[in-house]
């Protein structure tokens, strides 16, 4: 499983405004959809809703942007159609957290036993004495 992302085949909700401008069509709005993954600290499943703002210009064929912008710098209309997939994919990927957490103060896993710190008692410990000093633990201090 990937750390976090939009599940394959998931439906995204698009609330977009397409506005004709002198050089093309300006697409702006919000994309929402499901987000699933696992916590980067404790590996618990995460389920959330993604909400991303998008704004992208798609140039008309033959507009001045042909001379002023590289082909990969701006979207282009193709036969009066707009391919939104690359724009939406880029917008979603850029807002995904690099280290998702199930909750902001997740403590993760105990490095010794692998238990969830949130579920372990407050006095949980794996302190082990140094075996070279084990013989000294049998001695008791006496006051004179």
UniProtKB/TrEMBL annotation:
InterPro entries: YceD (IPR003772). Pfam families: YceD. It comes from the Bacteria. This is DUF177 domain-containing protein.
């Amino acid at each position: 499983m990937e750390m976090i992302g939009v599940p394959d085949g998931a439906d995204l909700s698009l609330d977009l405004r397409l506005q004709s401008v002198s050089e093309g069509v300006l697409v702006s709005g919000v994309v929402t959809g499901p987000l699933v993954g696992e916590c980067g600290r404790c590996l618990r499943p995460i389920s959330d809703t993604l909400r991303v703002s998008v704004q992208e210009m798609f140039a008309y064929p033959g507009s001045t942007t042909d001379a002023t912008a590289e082909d990969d710098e701006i979207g282009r209309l193709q036969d009066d159609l707009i391919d939104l997939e690359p724009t939406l994919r880029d917008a979603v990927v850029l807002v995904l957290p690099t280290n998702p957490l199930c909750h902001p103060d997740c403590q993760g896993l105990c490095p010794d036993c692998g238990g969830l710190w949130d579920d372990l008692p407050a006095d949980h410990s794996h302190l082990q004495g140094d075996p070279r000093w084990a013989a000294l633990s049998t001695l008791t201090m006496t006051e004179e």
